[in-house]
Amino acid sequence: SFLINNLGLMFIAGIIGNNWLAICSLPKQRSSIRTNEVLFINLAISNLITNYLVDLPDTIADFAGRWFLGETFCGVFRVCADLSETSSIFTTFFISAFWYQKLVGSLKRGGAPVQLDSLRLVGCLLAGSWTVAAVFSVPHFFFVEVEGGNGSEDDCLDVFPNAIAQQAYDITYLTVANALPLAGIVFASVQIVVTLSQNRRRIQSHGPDPKRQTLREESGTVESGSDDRPSCVASAPRFIFIFLFFFFGNFACLSVSTKPLLDHRDLVFVR
After folding, report:
1. What is the pTM of this model?
2. In whole angstroms, what is the distance from residue 202 CA to residue 204 CA?
3. What's the domain count of the chain?
4. Structural domain harbouring 141
5. For residue 265, what pLDDT is reported?
């Protein structure tokens, strides 16, 4: 069907894109690793977990028309779905905060130091995000069943003791692991785009200093296309493109990772 073919194409695109992201983010020298490289590598790892352990088995099950991978891998499948989704969202939030401090902070506060530009701090934040992701995802391994629902073929289903337990889990998970970091991502993204656009327009309205331009031309130091803009403002379009690319690309990946949860929402309650 069209849906299965579309999922197959997204799976292949995700494998290629996330492997490319991981390879390009690897430092050329071990001693020269930077904070943003660590964040992008972590994002690629989170998405590759989705690609290999969530999208691939789910696509195979869709082609087969039923879940045939057993109850043990059903638990692994559910764990990886929430683990990779939560880690991806938190990593995207950290990337948003990093570039917010680096770009907005440098423009508004005259080159203020970037607090997140610390490997130790980022390492602690990533360890904490994986811990939170594990807390929400590991219980799925023990509360799953493979059975047919409403006369359908075998399916991998979540099992909750009762409806109250399901509601409590859903509300907590959506608030802590989705709503809060997503709000931070949107805020940082909007602030970055607005701040860089405002500074770009302000610099363009002022134009280059004629005296400084004349001196540079006389000294022969002017290169084609150079200007007096700060480096972070001069490269604003590139930052905006990269930021929006990973922002929307990550959510496209998350939409695939949550697809099994939406498709198999016929939950079983143990009485």
Report:
1. 0.73
2. 5
3. 1
4. 2-269
5. 38
